[in-house]
Amino acid sequence: MEPVIAAAPDYSIYGLVMQADPVVKGVMLLLVIGSVICWAIIFEKIFRIYRLNRGIRQLERAEDGTLEYRSASPLVRKILSAAESEAEEGASRGETRSELRDRLERAMRLTLRQELRRVEVGLPFLATIGSAGPFIGLFGTVWGIVNSFTAIAQQKDTSLAVVAPGIAEALIATALGLAAAIPAVMAYNQISVALGRAYARGNMSVIELAKRMARPQAEPILRTATAEPLRAGKRF
Fold first, then answer.
1. Within a domain: 188
2. I need a surface site. Which of 99, 210, 225, 229 has the fewest CB within 10 A?
3. Is residue 163 part of a domain?
4. Which of 40-49, 68-77, 224-233 has the lowest mean pLDDT?
């Protein structure tokens, strides 16, 4: 009878993951899922911030009436619609130009903030993964090391062949925690800065638009090719 040759242990990353303790596997799976969700949020925010910046640039162009209605972004139309609705529905007798300008500013600024809040959806998840990811990975590492020392005690063998696989499995959890947390923190910081800059630029445009729309003879805000120019007192 030929002797059976035992298969050599698999020390690849895949092999170590498959041999890991169920708790460590659960931690790894949780971190992988969190990382995938983070990357989905990051790509979605890149697209939405691009659209937001495009709208802010158009809002700046609308200050001097060089923007055509047909090419105006939804952000510009919402902000100007809010201002024109406020100009019509909130008008009162004896209102000064300064009071009208303040009302228009509030209406447009509120709309701008609402649009920014839509872009901010998902950022708390990035912050959570960025702060908690390393600790979740550390939990898996601690659990794996405890199991390694338990195996040492049971086998009464302190050789590297007994200790190394368990510790390697545990350290993979820490690596996954860092891999999930680092992109999440970097993306959160970059997105927060981009939104802050967009709001600052948009707020300056809102102030200028409110001054212009509050004039007795308001100049056109958006130019159209087929109809009269859109002004502060006319809906579109």
1. yes
2. 225
3. yes
4. 224-233
For residue 27, CA distances in Å to 31, 40, 174, 177 come to 6, 20, 10, 9
CB atoms within 10 A of CB 196: 11
Give 215's DSSP letter: S
Kindly write down the DSSP assignment for every residue of 8-75, as one continuous string.
PP--SHHHHHHHS-HHHHHHHHHHHHHHHHHHHHHHHHHHHHHHHHHHHHHHHHHTTT--BGGG--HH
**Contact by Cβ (8 Å): 151, 169:** no
Which domain covers residue 186, as residue numbers?
A: 21-213
Is 228 a domain residue? no
Q: For residues 13 and 84, give the distance between their C-alpha atoms in angstroms, rounded to a whole number.
A: 62
d(CA 163, CA 69): 70
Q: Which of 30-39, 42-51, 77-86 is predicted with the least confidence, judged by mean pLDDT?
A: 77-86
Would residue 229 count as lying in a domain? no
Rg (CA), the chain: 29
